[in-house]
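During the second year of the project, the team shifted from modelling isolated chains to modelling whole assemblies. The rationale, set out in the original proposal, was that interfaces cannot be judged from single-chain predictions alone. As a representative example for this report, we include one of the complexes processed in the last quarter. Its constituent sequences, exactly as entered into the pipeline, are reproduced here:
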Amino acid sequence: MTMSEQVPGTHNATQPVPDRNNATTGTAGGHWMQVRDVAAYYGDRMAISEISMTIKPRSTTAIIGPSGCGKSTFIRCLNRMHEVGLGNNRVTGSVLLDGHDIYGRSIDPVQVRRYIGMVFQRPNPFPSMSIYDNVVAGIKLTRSPSRTELDETVERCLNQAALWDEVKDKLKASGASLSGGQQQRLCIARSLAMQPHVLLMDEPCSALDPIATYKIETLINELKRQYTIVIVTHNMQQASRVADETAFFLAGEERIGKLVEFGPTNQLFTNPTDPRTEAYITGRFG
Amino acid sequence: MTTRNAEDEIAPPASWDVQGSPKFARSSGVGADDVFKWLVYTTAFAVPAVLVALFVLLVIDAWPALARFGLGFVTSSNWDNVKQQFGTLPYIYGTVVTSLLALLIATPVGVGAAIFVTEYAPRPLRVPVSFTIELLAAIPSIIFGLWGFFALTPIMRSTVEPFMKSVVGPLPVIGGLFQGPSVGKDLFTGGVILSIMILPTIVSISREVLLAVPTMQREGMLALGATRWEAIREAVIPYARVGIAGAAILGLARALGETMAVTMVIGNSSRKITGTLLTPGYTMASAIANQFTEADNPLYFSAIVGVAALLLVVSAIVNIAARLMIWQISRGGAEGGNRG
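Output from the structure prediction step:
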């Protein structure tokens, strides 16, 4: 399926974010992101700073680093989830999606999240909804699609998430009745239903066993043909298995996470330029 | 590294033998440990024992009336001391109507307040707001009663009831609830004062239940492009719905048994069941409070105790149902409920 065949998006046409059917040329139809000098704060405490990187279209970018290096904070800055909650969390710098700043003055964070999907550390299907309703929960927020369109979306997304064959006979069952790995793939299907430009994954396998992890990794390698993926992982083998490019984050003495090194995954793991990267990937600290 | 067979493990080598043996034997006699154990057993069982004794006593004292009227005790509307006829249906009706009215008013308000406290209130406002609402629960019933008698009743009579009659009165079906003269001291006012009194229960339990909803549920919906209200409506409230229902039922349980304040505003006179809320009535509790001093013959007294026994059974059932629902949500909630 190509992008142009997909059902028209749910966004408001007046939004400055570009129409998904008019994908930027020169990026093979994929969507790219650019992070410029981003810093994130929890109240007054700075958690990450001076982060800049370019996320290539239709590829997987991994964020690795020890606990507390701000990698989860960083990925939550990419779809404006960092500022959610009652605390006074804020972000400075800019994050571009296809050249448009998602932190721009006129931008609605709610609209941003429709373009940049997110999968969380622990599978979080909505337990009061069926598997079917979980998948279409997002698209039902903004419009009331026909039954046929909903059916098609459910089948397409569950297929993309490699879950269709396992659940096609029990779509009415609760999302919570699935195993952990199936739940996480359901959450991926739920994000895909929004036809996001970019899919963010925050340690998607940390609560899963090795077999479920393997399935998700295979899925990521499938999905990146169509989507731009950013994945946070504490598992360096996972980064080397799924990522085209890898960013290594590290927090210094002042506990502010910084980007130490960013480059093609192969190069970062075999021939790192920064001694701290080398120390981390060889297991000498972190 | 060599492996060893299981047989090798049976006998320790002779070189390991030590002098003397550890004193493992149980000490004889009754120690402080046993005394304490029986003490706490006794205190723990004393409470349910009181409940059982209470219920048994109520049934014994109510027996003459229960035996004489049988099912008619709860199905008859005729409560006449002079003719020695005692049917409690109007009292049951008054209790049910005022309690449901209270629930209808207090549940949306209470859940709304709980959502404000958990989802919207800035951190410095959270504690003062919930503290103030819960302070309502600490106000003695008689004070609500006095306020209801002197402040609420006149307003109901002069303003609220005429307003409801003119706005809701002409509607089909529910219009029937607001017919007749505005008397002020009636079932409607009783329900309103009950709704204020059960509000703290509903707010505090709903708040606990909403706080128990995992952040991940909220964020999962937000990440799909939901607004804050959509995330609450689509993810938070459905996750907490069983517990919220439990909070409402716990409020209902309180409304059923509430006596003093209701007695002061409900009118205590009508013994007929009519469709309108604008009529003086009785609840079971207010009937007991009003009449037990007048019970000048054994059957009358027995009938009053029968009302008490009935009230106890109904309250117990409603309380148990509410606790079960809240218990279900607090131990994993909706997931447990939907599995399988």
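Chain B touches chain A through 28 residues (CB under 8 Å). The first strand of chain B starts at residue 79 and ends at 80.
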